[in-house]
Design brief:
alpha/beta; Rossmann fold; 8-stranded mixed beta sheet; 6 helices; 11 strands; about 30% helix; about 30% strand; binds S-adenosylmethionine
């Protein structure tokens, strides 16, 4: 991904803008607000409440800036919820760039600076613990090549939009995600595209269109029980 530029979104948090793709990593209406609403509140927190699972295994498609990982690490510490976080990223960002992102100003936990630094400094392909409840494995890999049957409870599907990266929203990739999920399993994403939701239904997911974060009418949560 060429030459990402830092941009401020409406809630004051940063995102990255890719001029060639004409795409940003997050909603311009608020990067932290979007991450919290889509992945934490309507994904992780909802899942924990309905299942009561002592440990939750998460697969993230697209580590990028590490914002979702940071928000999840913060959740694990605050809620004392054990989380195993696996994240895929074929195009890791330069540390000089991620150091300039202002996400640690947007969370008020005393460990947040340490967590964000560690998220970017830890080695790829090695499991690391960031607090007593949160471990992370960053893998330098595309979702298309990922094979880990029945390992995850939740997939944070945070790829670039279907208009920019259509191949990743394909039913074949969603089948890979389905294989990776235990039961009950869940996929959450900011995306609400019709074909994407029909693909999920075809694969046996129960699809919910939920109110989206600011600037977006809807988001998608898909669950699978069998
Ligand atoms: C919309 S950004 C979101 C990134 C991240 N979740 C964040 O909060 O910064 C999409 C991410 O997906 C990554 N990506 C692109 N192709 C991918 C693929 N085939 N498999 C997994 N991730 C991919 C991009 O490099 C980028 O980091």
């Amino acid at each position: 991904m060429d030459n990402p530029q830092i941009r401020q979104t409406k809630d004051g948090s940063h995102t990255l803008w890719l001029p060639e793709l004409e795409e940003s990593y997050h909603s311009i209406h608020g990067a932290v607000t979007e991450s919290k609403w889509v992945f934490i509140e309507n994904g992780l927190d909802y899942f924990c409440q309905i299942t009561g699972n002592k440990e939750v295994n998460i697969l993230e498609v697209g580590f990028g800036t590490g914002l979702n990982a940071l928000m999840t690490c913060n959740y694990s510490q605050v809620k004392k919820q054990r989380i195993k976080y696996s994240t895929l990223e074929p195009f890791p960002l330069a540390t000089e760039l991620t150091k300039q992102l202002n996400y640690t100003d947007c969370l008020d936990h005393p460990q947040v600076e340490f967590w964000f630094q560690e998220l970017h400094m830890i080695n790829w392909g090695q499991i690391e613990w960031l607090n007593p409840y949160f471990s992370i494995l960053k893998t330098h890999e595309r979702i298309q090549e990922h094979t880990a049957p029945g390992q995850y409870d939740i997939c944070y599907f945070d790829a670039f939009a279907p208009g920019k990266q259509p191949e990743i929203w394909d039913i074949g990739v969603l089948e890979t995600v389905k294989r990776g999920l235990r039961r009950p399993g869940m996929l959450v994403t900011y995306c609400a595209q019709g074909q994407f939701k029909r693909n999920l239904m075809q694969l046996g997911f129960m699809v919910e269109a939920l109110p989206g974060p600011p600037g977006k009418k809807e988001m998608t949560r898909a669950t699978i029980d069998s």
